[in-house]
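Here is a typical sample entry:
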Amino acid sequence: MKYAILNNGIIMPLLGFGVYGLAEGEQCVNTVKFAIEAGYRSIDTASGYDNEASVGQAIRESGVSRDEIFLTTKLGNGDQRSGGVQAAFEASLSRLGLDYVDLYITHWPCKGYYEKAWLALEKIYKSGKARAVGVSNFQPHHIEDIKKTWTIIPALNQVEMHPFLTQKPLFAFCRENNIAPQAWSPLGGNRPLQERIFASEAITRLAEKYGKSPAQIVLRWNIELGVITIPKSANPARIKENFNIFDFELTPEEAANIDALNRDERGGPDPDNFNF
């Protein structure tokens, strides 16, 4: 495993496991436990995924010490808009059945609300119940807005990122502000987009060269860039496959060839134009 050091000195695995789409219940519990058994030590959930209770149960039943697991959850948009940030955070802790989270982030920049939400996250950080706080789906102008009043710099910005949406300018901006970049949907998210990414010559050629799957090539590309990444899967074979990316390295030229696939093509919502 390789790690990122967040701006407050906290160490976070570069490769994590996302649980979006896993329904609350036995399947989610068993899937997360399997991921931990496979070697993942970073789990990413959200109040909006409606599976925090199962994630917390899986962590407790995994047999792995809590301090070895890096757990992220997120502030829902409704709670951001209502101003009930502290109550939402405490509710997440209750559902998780845990005393603290390692990272708490706003899920989306809700217009007119994200500035105040950030100040509430600062208070949560100062309480010690979140070891780090950050943002998600923030563009540079969103960060500039909260920069006017922040006393704590966000540790991380989690955004959509994959070979067709490399986010180079945004990530450069984040790094200039000492904010770690993180990728959601690193493999493309929806299946048609993922299939087109995997069929790209730059990807298939490297998969053949290294004896790896296209998914492994893309995830290794994330690691080479120093981007924290959280692939998701409910398939045990793919969960193990996605973790098996630390026995090879891409050359700078190979990574650049994947960079060149960028089309600024989103598979998910536009952070400046969403209605949920």
Summary: The mean pLDDT is 97. The first helix runs from residue 26 to 38. Strands lie at 3-5, 11-13, 17-18, 42-44, 70-75, 103-106, 133-136, 156-160, 180-184, 228-229. The chain has one domain: 3-259.
